[in-house]
Amino acid sequence: MGVDKPRTSLPLFDEGGRSYEHPLYDKLLSMPGLSVGVAPLDRLLTWGLTNSLWVFPMATSCCGIELMAAAASRVDLDRMGTFYRGTPRQGDVMVVAGTITVKMAPRVKRLWEQMPEPKWAIAMGSCAISGDFYRDLYPVVPGIDTFLPVDVYIPGCPPNPESLMAGLLELAAKIRSEQGKPLTAPVQKTGGLVATKPSIARIGDPERDPSLSDQQMEAASRAAESPVARPAEELEMPPVPETAPGTVAAPPTFAPELVELFQAHGVVDFPKDAPPVVPLARHVALARALVERGYKQLVYVVASHWLAGKGRSGNVAGGPEHHEVAYGLRTVGPKRGAEGGSKLAWWSVRVEAGGAAPTLAHVIAGADWQEREQWDLVGVRFSGHPDLRRLMMPDDWSGHPLRKDYPADAHTAPWR
Amino acid sequence: MSALLRGFVYGLLVVNAVLLTSAVNIWFERKFSARMQSRVGPTRVGPLGLLQPFADVAKLMSKEDTVPASGNRVLFTAAPLLATVCALAAAAVVPFTPDVVAADLDVGVLWVLAVGSITTIAIFMAGWASNNKFALLGGMRSIAQAVSYEVPLVLSAMVPVVLSGTMSLSGIVTWQSEHLWIAAWPLIPGLPAFVIFFLAMTAEANRIPFDIPEAESELVAGVTTEYSGMKFALFYVGEYAHTLVGSAIASALFLGGWSGPMAATMPWLGLVYMVVKTLFLFFMITWVRWSLVRFRSDQLLAICWKWLVPISVGLVLVAALWVELVPGVH
Amino acid sequence: MEVALRKIQRPDPYLDIADVEADAELMLLHLGPQHPSTHGVFRIDLYLDGEIIVKAVPFPGYLHRGVEKLCERLTFVQQTPVVDKHDYVAPMTSEQAINMAFEALLKVEVPRRARYLRSIFAEMQRIASHLLWLGTFTLDLGGAMGGGTTLFMHCFRERETILDLFEEVTGARFHYNTHTIGGNRHDLTAGWAAKVKSAMDLIESRLSEYVSMSYENRIFRQRTSGVGVLDGALALELGVSGPILRASGVDHDLRRDAPFHAYDEVEVKVATATEGDCLARTKVRVEELRESIRLVRLFLDGLPEGPINGGKPIKLAGQYKVNTGQVYVGIETPRGELGTYVIAGGEGGASPYRLKFRAPSLHALSTLPYVLPGATLSDCVAILGSLDPIMGEVDR
Ligand code: SF4
Asked: Cα–Cα distance between B61 and B230 in angstroms, integer?
């Protein structure tokens, strides 16, 4: 079909492959004599479209801040008639700004489907383009073009607000260049969340070979399989001296009265550079006693996973697989001279494989979420926990990603 | 027949004038808010970005017209129409000059209030038919708000009616041209009634700080969450038309409408006065909107029932007393 | 600790909704993960009775990027640009937190000038972050099409001046990658200090305007006072820190109570409030803005000459090695105690075996099941905004 011929072939298709009818074009085309109005109308609508690109912001992380800054005084996207609408129904451009995770991707896809045609997508920032340096990590989608038809890519980490504006102008130019071209049905692929080609021809890029996307995706999965480069061993530097002069942020030390308390709870060894290990049976009682002594603020719960033959002091021949869970509590209060201030008490418990640590959630309410997170990510169980659900990963996720036997680049179908 | 023709011509004029002014007001509001925020606002479409609202509407015309699969298609489609038509219908009785009024009803004030309140039904229809929880919450809020704010709105509109002894808007304006603006004389029921009417009218038009049915930060886009394309454009323009017509009515009721120096001899001057007063009120609403944050729904209702309603009841009584005691009011 | 902690009956976060459902017809509303006011991708399931929240179940994790796993694969010197992306409103502080932990683990000394620079950067980040917070918080209260936007734009305008200053030193608007083990990578440019001072003057002079647009405004006060009350004891238990804790009557600030950087050389005035509601949080943060402006000036005046890095020049990715040991270092960021827990002994000793970030925002969000019940949907947005969560560090 010629470039300057008005479009005569309806219908359009949306993402789901359903056709939709355009209210205005349809009327005009069905009325004899009025079909000549289609070309000027097309020009008018394109003028409207390019000058009033309302953004549906899919801002998930850092790039979202720049997305906000782009609407703010200095750059002021409103100059070109662009502002942000909170509902997908009123957006024309979905700007995906930020990392999209496997937990979020189905939602993004769904929001995209809720946007009315014609619609465009902009990938803002390396995360949206390719997944940035998270791309071969288990929860991250390596680029939104694995499941959305992207029209404009704005590189950067994060791209400046000015770049976003340039991207929107680029999109407007693209829309204009496609004005009056025939419409085609989108390329549909079967299966769940797989890449789809742009649904409307006017956003199609004639320069871009359609097979390119497939090649890119293959390359993505190949890259995910290759191991990470490690510095060569022979380039080793001299070891760090045991003590260095001057001020060093001091690791937590033990006040004498705490040593007593810990000893009363079955601690024998106080290592200089690691938390003392408290027997599982006494651990809740110790936490209670510490809270009574003013260590009221929960600081952290950190679990770590140790495969067989590994331990806190390096390689332990024949050592069993286990978890270690470290806890930290703080005192609060103003520092007056050398007195007062905030002191940290830390300890850890050792949980054998298959075992469970008694929960602290009944002593310190905040342990609830922290323990949930550690269970979710590291896989250590907490007995008696009131609500042991996953916190970070989707509910149907299998495995605990921070376990040492869990591959970092575990492929998460269907994105890879 | 000629009355019909006249009504038709005037109706066409008024509707187009209101819609056009609404579009310009959208532009004005975007520019004005931008200046308040040390931005510049639309600059690229037309001179000073003046064509921006038209580009928006052209864009919205070309968008797909979505209806939620589980929503009620009929009500969903009817709601934006109803909302806009009601806003425009109220404009029918607005006297622009002594002669230019599409329909000079004897019960003009009643008509305005009655038609204006149908907007609420339209908004609730939209909320309910969308089958969306945010939209439904927005619809419920708008009912609660309207049920409350209708009362002070009607009561404060009664003050000019009582004073002038007529329910026709033209009659009220004529009365004011013979006496003084009602907002200025008699000062005591006049000015507070004007303020209350203005507040309640802002609430009816869902403008910040009373915009709880829309409340973007809470309800995404409130009742319009599911609306796209032309249906949304109708709501978008309808909201501005509603505010504009509300401002026009407030200036007719309280600020003397077309009356002013030399308006009796030069009718076109009356039109200028009317337009200037209306736009001034619209400007006030815009100014407030871009300065304040919004109330919570319970606070909104508390203000209405604790303050506006009792005061406006008192004002009507004062107005009645005034008519009884001061000679020469009628 | 002599603080009058208010005793308030705690809502039960484990409330069985079936018990309530018998008496009232509840509506389950999913707020998020994509919602204008969730500050990123965060979901709360609200069980509503009318507009009153009966139970709230938060679901973080929509931005979980697996950074802790990534950090186990990177060497110590490679980590800084990664952690920039956690607290993306104040990335400098994330960099500082992780590098200080490594310095403690590797026993590297930080020269005095570098500590001063870090203090200056930290305080400027606090200003930028609190400004952004004030803007987005009013945006939550006032909506995208109203007065909220106005203050938001003004706050962003001021934040841009700070970003410009950072850009001059580090070359980036944010995600600076300017800290490294043992100090900083970029020294100040000529004339930078004077520019900072004039920017501080500007912000200080405009602060009263922002106050009049925020908590001196009656509607703003009505929307925030008494909303989202968090008592100090519960806040401590949940691990809440920073301005939220201080607004709940607990006088605690690591800058003063466990000094790091150069904070032991100055006196930090800590702002507190006792009400524990959204209004108190606003006031505390605005006070902190003033205090930060004062501190920036103080540090700039006392800035010593000298080297800015006490570590070895970085030639190799794996040049720092350590095989055993665990450290925890926590610093005060705009959102509270940001800590890094490092277990040494990753592959070859050049990378950590396990790295865990203690994110203040995660602890702040864990208050939601306690403070939301009884509030309305509108309050929910205000409360969530007042907690100032940054999803990047919540989910990591
Ligand atoms: S591209 Fe960079 S700035 Fe943008 S979301 Fe990803 S990590 Fe953040």
From this structure: 5
The boundaries of the domain holding residue C189 are 67-394
Spatial distance between the Cα atoms of A350 and A376, rounded to a whole number of angstroms: 18
Could you tell me the domains of chain A? 23-193 (3.40.50.12280), 256-383 (3.30.460.80)
Q: Is C57 domain-assigned?
A: no
Of C27, C35, C148, Cβ closest to residue B293: C148
Closest CA to A347 of A370, A322, A327: A327
Chains contacting A (3+ CB pairs below 8 angstroms): B, C
- d(C-alpha C263, C-alpha C268), whole Å: 7
Examine residue C198 and state whether it is found in any structural domain, yes or no: yes
Buried b (16+ CB within 10 A) or exposed e, B283-319: eebbebbbbbbbbbbebbbebbeeebbebbeebbebb
pLDDT tens figures, B140-180? 888 888 888 888 888 888 888 888 878 887 778 777 777 77
Q: Does the pTM of the predicted model rise above 0.90?
A: no
Query: Quick count: other Cβ atoms within 10 Å of Cβ C374?
Result: 12
* Closest chain C C-alpha to B293 CA, distance in angstroms: 4
Closest residue in C to B297 (Cα) is C378
Question: Domain tally for chain C?
Answer: 1
pLDDT of C143 reads 66
Provide the pLDDT confidence category of residue C377 given band limits of 50, 70 and 90.
confident
Chain A interface residues facing chain B, Cβ-Cβ under 8 Å? Answer: 12, 14, 20, 22-24, 44-45, 47-49, 51-54, 72-73, 76, 78-81, 85-87, 89-90, 92, 114, 116-118
Phi, psi values for residue B216, rounded to 5°: -50, -40
Mean pLDDT in order along chain A per 10 residues (416 residues): 38 48 61 65 78 86 86 83 83 87 83 80 86 80 78 85 87 76 46 40 39 46 40 39 39 67 77 79 83 83 83 73 85 71 81 81 83 86 82 81 76 55
Q: Phi-psi bin for A341: left (phi > 0), alpha (psi -120 to 50), beta?
A: left
Ligand 1 centroid from CA C292, angstroms = 28
Task: Please state whether beta strands C326-333 and C336-343 pair in parallel, antiparallel, or not at all (unpaired).
Answer: antiparallel
CATH of the domain at C188: 1.10.645.10
Which of A96, A157, A163, A164 best tests ligand 1's pocket when mutated (most atoms within 8 Å of CB)? A157
Distance from CA of C51 to the nearest CA of B (A): 8
